Amino acid sequence: MTRVEHLDHAFGIGERRPRLSWRLPPEAARQLAYQIRTTNGHSLDTRARDARTTDDHFVDGQTADGPDPAGRDTAGMNSDGPDTAGRDTASPGSDVVDTGWVADAGHILVDWPFAPLKSAEHVSWQVRVRTELGDSDWSGPCSLETGLLEPGDWTASWIRPAETDIPPAGQRPAHDLRGIVTCPETVTRARLYATAHGLYEVFLNGQRVGDQELTPGFTQYTVRLQVQTYDVTALLRPGDNEIVVRLSDGWFRGQVGLLRSADQWGGRTAFLAQLHADGTIIGGTDSTWTTLPSPIRTADLIEGQTSDLGPLPTFEAPTSSPQPTSDRATRTPRPSAEQPTRTPQPAAEAPTHAAQPAAGVSTHAPQPPTGVPTRAPQPSAGMPVEVATEIGFGGLVGVVAPPVRRVQELSPVAVTFPAAGRQVVDLGQNINGWVRLTGLAGVTGQITLTHGESLGPDGDVDTGHLAPDMPFLPQPLSAGQVDRVTPAGADTFEPRHTTHGFRYVRVEGGPAQVTGIVVHTDLRRTGWFTCSDERVNRLHEAALWSFRGNACDIPTDCPTRERAGWTGDWQVFSPTAAFLYDVAGFSTKWLRDLAADQWDTGVVANMSPCPPAEGRHGPLGGWNGSAGWGDAAVIVPWSLYQAYGDERILAEQWPSMVAWLDHVERAAAGGHHPARKPDPHLWDTGFHWGEWLIPGEQIGDMREYQARDKADVATAYFFRSAALMARIAGVLGRTGEAAGYTALAAAVRAAWQAEFIGADGTIRPDTQHNLVRALAFGLLPEHLTQAAADRLAELIRAAGTHLATGFLSTADLLPVLADHGHADVAYELLLQDSEPSWMVMLDRGATTVWEWWDGVDAAGRPRDSLNHYSKGAVAGFLHRYTAGIRVGAPGYRDFRIEPVPGGGITSASAGHDSPYGRICSSWRLADGRLDLEVEVPPGTSAEVVLPSSVQVVGPGTHRFEHAY
Ligand code: BGC
Q1: What is the sign, positive or negative, of the torsion defined by CA atoms of 107, 109, 111, 117?
Q2: Alpha carbon distance 2, 107 (integer Å)
Q3: Average pLDDT value for residue range 897-912
Q4: Is residue 320 a contact partner of residue 182, using CB atoms and an 8 Å limit?
Q5: Residue 222 pLDDT greater than 80, yes or no
């Protein structure tokens, strides 16, 4: 498997010097050398050539201590080695360029060896490696392609629909924009580059282009806007080609964030596209484009979408087109006369009523019905578009993460009819996405779809708990999530310009067949866990689904109420997410927004991308910069480095981390709590969310909550970030700064100890969360550590073996117990089935993890979001302790397998697809024995820790038996 940066498919990237990764042959212990070649006539990077002459890093066949150049044939691997740098004599074709053998053990995120890439450059590359097993074959050809890298690459203009009057947010229509591009006879490679202020979908000659959803995605639009690159070679034809774009508000102009503010990045939507054929620009958005109303009458990510599929005025057909546009472009398959049934069809892998995927599109889910809308026979030229000359090309960026896609379809598990004319569909799983309706042909009026996470006592969908509680706003905010469609003869409907967090859908206005469409960033799954206890497996599944429900181009808090990239949430969950999915690109993208959102004072915004209304100058400006949330600036890059070995993310985020720590240092030194004597290293002022959502805690009056002393939490995070900064500086070779942050961390730790450890050695405040943090962050002197862990266990016992942790420390609760001899208590908490506990969530029907411990009370009443991943970080305990897979050297170059059985679990197994390959740990307890099987990927080693033995093993599968 090869990769470019953090992408499996590096298409439209913005990186001129992308790093390359590959895996070693099975069982290979170590790479001795590698060789990379391209077939594009690339020259080697001159910097690399210079380096070669000075430090002999690049090896022309051999060096004194380098590998044997001449095809050492071991283990039957390919051995036709090249003998000169720059040209591979064994390869055909004169434009093949290769690095020669490079004596280097690194094969993850290896620096680009060739000259920096240009815009729209397509590179085909191959790699082979030399290991102790011999020389491998060349890998299959891998490719990468850059997008448009320079503002000057654009000749197209930004255009926008002519909007005479703009309705209030939530009620604004999508617009269709149409242009004609003339294409030459033969085209071997065609690319469409597109982006928008708003959300867009593109149709080329009536076919939907690509399978990405919610493009261009969510970034801090003032600074960064993603451009998508599409391969449209198969869709173009000689002569005139029609491009139709459907453009709605999206995050750019629609409602976003805690306050549901609209128009956050501008009051108008806009679109930009450029079409290239074989390296030549053949067209793009300009003043010749026209605009017409679309069938989407309203579209808002939070509020929902209203569509009327009745005939619309058509665009005039392009003059030289072989067929009239209106014949080619149909919106949906015509009614299939399929009668809706009351009982849903059984779940099918790929429902037959869906259109077949177009060639080259994702096979995760069938391609949705494609095509531009059916329009009335009288052609209309449409209104001329406006050219938006004031929008520039400066902030356009390529992709660093996989796109959002329709990744799965779910068939309902139940359909009920709680009242006349109301159908309630249960997907059996809380998801992010939307539904597809089929069987609409007989429907005469409008169908209304209300999406929710729970049912009321009457069996109907209850959305009351999803409406934000913002008493200070002039009007109450709605729960949103309502779609409406007038089928007007169409058989099928899918919205695509909105998303919802839901398990249940109320259908009013006519029965319809409903299929759930799961929509999220199309991340590669990398982590699995299963054990002998089904309840624990269900909990793991719920945590997994909570992440899936909250990975919609950015990591969100919930897919319903705010859908915001809350920093604290990702700070807590990102290490667990990085085990389950490859989130390297996803998180890198988000960190760039975090840095872009940072104030010049270093304050980290509560959420990224941060809508201006939530930022410094908004009404809640003072709520930004909280401990545990702002610390995401340091902790998230560190988690990424641990999981993927990506040092560059540390370097890239370094200025942001420094700015945050400077702010914290100033804030700590600059004020003090009135009840405390000043200490410049105690952070006891400012706004903090604190531990947040501790069971039973009443927040009620925010002003009173704000005034509560949270110095224990804030100072602990001050220490945590300063200590991490010392390590990060060390990794980056910033020796002076490493020493500075080490000293700062020591001073903060001393201040915390002076304030929060009593003369008798007891820790104050005597709360579970304070003790968890003290133990997890290393705030305690050695001699008090065990006593603190014992006290934590005692507090838990005193509460009837119940946890009392909230948002920030729950992830560390079970690990610190297990680390200090209380694995029994950890497992009892994991399996506790009275409130507050994870099992109560499952017992009360959760399929995702709740925001509050009592997200659904004993009477079945829901409270706030039922899909928040922070408490789902308990899955990390299952991976790292129950199954025992723990990262050692960054990227799992070495790792530890140290299972901690407990809770009556008799077997457990976990797998993680690390950058080096698949790691597995699988154990079984039987007949007084623990049987453990461990899989170690090539190029890595594992330290296997069992109660009375420690062994280091290399690549391959290993079995261990231990008395237990
Ligand atoms: C969000 C959280 C977030 C919090 C700040 C909530 O409204 O849903 O997940 O971290 O505010 O405490």
Answers
A1: positive
A2: 10
A3: 98
A4: yes
A5: yes
User: Does the C-beta of 562 come closer than 6 Å to ligand 1?
Assistant: yes
Distance CA 513, CA 348 (A): 14
Closest CA to 452 of 869, 867, 871, 872: 867
Among protein residues, the one with the nearest Cα to ligand 1's atom 12 is 689
Which is the closest atom of ligand 1 to the Cα of 562?
A: 8
Rg, the chain, Cα only: 29
CB 895 within 8 A of CB 919: yes
- Report the pLDDT value the prediction gives residue 349, as an integer from 0 to 100: 24
Ligand 1 atom nearest 864 alpha carbon: 8
Of 148, 60, 69, nearest to 98 by C-alpha is: 60
383-441 tens-digit pLDDT: 999 999 999 999 999 999 999 999 999 999 999 999 999 999 999 999 999 999 999 98
Residue 712 Cα to ligand 1 midpoint, Å, equals 20
User: Helical H runs in 321-454?
Assistant: 325-328
> Average pLDDT of 746-757?
98
* Amino acid identity at 237: R
Centre of ligand 1 to C-alpha 939, Å, is 41
Mean pLDDT of 317-346: 33
Cβ 922 vs Cβ 929: under 8 Å: no
State residue 330's pLDDT score: 29
Q: Which pLDDT tens digit goes with each residue over 847-874?
A: 999 999 999 999 999 999 999 999 999 9
**Which tokens in the block code for residue 53?**
């002459």
Render pLDDT for 652-684 as a digit per residue (tens, 0 to 9). Answer: 999 999 999 999 999 999 999 988 989 999 999
CA dist 7 and 142 (Å) reads 12
661, two tokens: 């720590």
Query: Angle at Cα 135 formed by Cα 131 and Cα 137, nearest 5°?
Result: 125
Is 14 within 8 Å of 149 (Cβ atoms)? yes
The span from the CA of 231 to the CA of 694, in Å, is 50
Q: What is the DSSP letter of 519?
A: E
Closest-lying ligand 1 atom to the alpha carbon of residue 568? 10
Quote the Cα angle for 253-259-261, to 5°.
20
Task: Please confirm whether the linkage preceding 151 is cis (ω < 30° from 0).
Answer: no
Q: How far apart are CA 387 and CA 821, in angstroms?
A: 68
Helix (H) or strand (E) holding 755, with range, is: helix 735-756
Query: Is the minimum distance from the CB of 689 to ligand 1 under 6 angstroms?
Result: yes
* Domains along the chain with CATH numbers: 1-147 (2.60.40.10), 151-340+348-355+365-399 (2.60.120.260), 409-519 (2.60.120.260), 527-882 (1.50.10.10), 883-964 (2.60.420.10)
Band (pLDDT 50/70/90 cuts) for residue 100 is very high
- Give which of 621, 258, 690, 168 is closest to 469, Cα–Cα: 258
Active site residue ranges: 562, 851
pLDDT, the chain, mean: 89
Residue 408 β-bridge partners: 518
Query: What is the whole-number distance in angstroms between the Cα of residue 906 and the centre of ligand 1?
Result: 37
Q: Is 568 in the pocket of ligand 1 (CB under 6 A)?
A: yes
Largest Cα span, the chain: 90
- Contact partners, residue 467, CB within 8 Å, separation at least 6: 476, 477, 478, 479, 561
Q: How far is the CA of 198 from the centre of ligand 1 (A)?
A: 25
pLDDT range class, residue 356, cuts 50, 70, 90: very low
pLDDT exceeds 50 at position 521: yes
Per-residue pLDDT at 339 exceeds 70: no
With the C-alpha atoms ordered 838, 843, 849, 854, is the resulting torsion angle positive or negative? negative
Would the pLDDT of 363 be above 50? no
Query: How many angstroms from the chain centroid is the CA of residue 175?
Result: 29
Q: Measured at the alpha carbon of residue 233, what is the angle toward residues 229 and 234, in degrees to the nearest 5?
A: 125
DSSP string across 690-716: -S-S-TT-----HHHHHHS--HHHHHH
